[in-house]
Specification:
Strands 11, 12, 13, 14, 15, 18 and 19 form a 7-stranded mixed β-sheet that branches. This protein has a 5-stranded mixed β-sheet with strand order 2-3-9-4-5, with helices on one face. A 3-stranded antiparallel β-sheet has the order 6-7-8, with no helix packed on it. It folds into 2 domains: 3-125, Ribosomal Protein S5, domain 2, CATH 3.30.230.20; 128-299, 2-Layer Sandwich (lpxc deacetylase, domain 1). The protein is globular, with a radius of gyration of 18 Å. Helix content is 20%, strand content 32%. Strand 7 (65-68) and strand 8 form a beta hairpin. By secondary structure, the protein is α+β, with helices and mostly antiparallel strands. The longest helix has 14 residues, at 235-248. It has 7 helices and 19 strands.
Amino acid sequence: MLRQRTLKTLTKAVGVGLHSGHRVELTLRPAQPDTGIVFRRVDLPLPVDIPVSATAVTDTRLASTISNGGAKVMTVEHLMSACAGLCIDNLYVDITAEEVPILDGSSSSFVFLLQSAGIELQNAPKRFVKVKRTVEVREGEGHNLKWARLEPYHGYKLAFEIVFDHRVVEGQRYEFDLSTGNYSRDIARARTFGFTKDVEAMRASGLGLGGSLDNAIVMDDYRVLNAGGLRYDDEFVKHKLLDAMGDLYLIGKPLLASYSAFRSGHALNNRLLRELLANPASFEMVTFDDESLAPAGFVRMARAW
């Protein structure tokens, strides 16, 4: 039986929110089988649980925000991406503010925290959302066209393409297959990025208040301003793929699917999940009683760097 995974022990981190700029403490704790990933706002007078789901997403402006009633947690995608990359099924995320800390702007710090706590197999079958029919969402036309697609695939692979009118970014495309790639090495270190020309508008809207060269790649009209440069030559598209893995994992279970996208973002990724769920014939829930029949990427424990 291919089994579910949680943590062996709890682990903690402290940081600031990328958009709020507020200090936040994060505690990752083991959870029982079939719990899923649950964010818990422990700073409120009565703690509020916010289980992840596609329909819990209530805001996608520059990040994915999930809500339960009046309680919300912003910028969940990097932590969710790390959970997807390490195949974590069940986890409690205790948080003392309304935004997940940005840490270094990638998911590598979350990968380190999760692996440091240790990953434990649980006595329950791992449950997948298996895509049976192609589902696609599109937005805009011509130079404004964006699209995202899920297709049947025995495993989990992603392909992402970006196009920017900028001499550093321009066009990039990257493919990643969980069965043959190494998430920690190939994807996790890619940082979020932005342009100096957009910073003033973002901050006027109450966004990006915690951003700095320590937690984001920043570019002016000509170059990357970070002293250390890039971590990957194609770090920009790898970060978009990292985000997509986190956005898609908000469905609550790992996908068996091939995802491809052109200039997609948080909003379109969530629309894609909702479109999938709105068409019951396009997916089914599956488990693997014989783990040798499961895709290799979900069987082996994730490798470190």
